[in-house]
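Tutorial sheet, problem 5. The two components below are modelled jointly, 408 residues in total.
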Amino acid sequence: MQLRVRALETILTEKGYVDPQALDFIIDAYETKIGPHIGARIVAKAWVDTDFRHSLLTDATAAVASLGFAGRAMHLIAVENTPQLHNMVVCTLCSCYPWEVLGLPPVWYKSAPYRSRAVIDPRGVLSEFGVTLPAETEIRVWDSTAETRYLVVPMRPDGTEGWSEEKLASLVTRDSMIGTGLSGVPEVAS
Amino acid sequence: MNGVHDMGGMHGFGRVGTEPDEPVFHAPWEGRVLAMNRAMGYLGLWNIDIGRFSRETLPPHVYLGSSYYKKWELGLEKLCVQFGLVSDDELAVGHALHPTKPVKRTLTAAEAPKSLSRSSFERPASAPAKFKAGDRVRARNINPLSHTRLPRYARGRSGVVECIRGCHVFPDAVAAGKGEDPHWLYTVVFDARELWGEAADPTIKVSIEAWEPYLEAI
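Model answer (structure tokens):
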């Protein structure tokens, strides 16, 4: 594939359609700047700031824009987990994912096993991620069929009262914001 | 089209395989493919759904047998040929052989930061929304040969409108070369038993985002 991709880039560059420096910029942005740490900061802020949480759940695009990250997260929808409801995100048709707040999706998110099973057997999928929810918990699967994108706001772990946003953000995993994981449990309750 | 990309509810693909500490890209060429797709999209010749349709129309065995970024490379090559930007003989030799086709704009290094933000797909509405939150609707049983974002598992199934998301560019029209033809977009929630039968887990609900032409009132 490397040769095939290089051939296409050579043609497109020779014809002036792409600027290799622009490509370098995009790659660097996703390798070093845009990733799940952004989503984790958003979630942590929602945990400690009631007004921000309300804004995030009302209009996530506007709420996230107010924080000044690199890319504008257009048509973003934040959905909140509760003891009664667990949210989980998939794109059965392709690979839609909230890139601006989570970075590029992991391979499993784009894979046939996840895309095929998330909508018909979400509990089975969750068990493969080590997540077992109470049998009565409602599971809501969001299939990203349009240009709307979803960010799951996981539940704040117990024992984190008084923690700083920064410390809380360290507990928020990528998978917990997709809905295939739960937010981390603090090692030492303080 | 009823392609293999429409995977919701299919069996046989096995367990979800995760990779601890997964790198952003597994090889440098993957990043080049991603960035080329972004830069070529910036030309404005095609939109996201035309790009999707290019990948969906890869032969089924190619689609299923290719990694994600390989599909993106193959899809981009198809688009470049389809829009007259690159020809097959150029792809064969790996160099430009023919004159450049004029384009409105290209993504320069200075403008590259712009490409990190998605543009809005919301458009002014030409008519009021037909449905409101709480309405019961049925997803139409359509089977177009062209691009659609109504997954097969929802077709013919009844659900409830949960929310109106605004009036959005209609993928089916754009990919068919009929312009943006914006329509109201709704979140529609289905009970798992409606989708998968009475034996399904009653605590599970699945929602899709459905444009108004996908829906009929019950």
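Marking note: Strands of chain B lie at 136-139, 158-168, 183-191, 204-211, 215-217. Full credit if you identified this.
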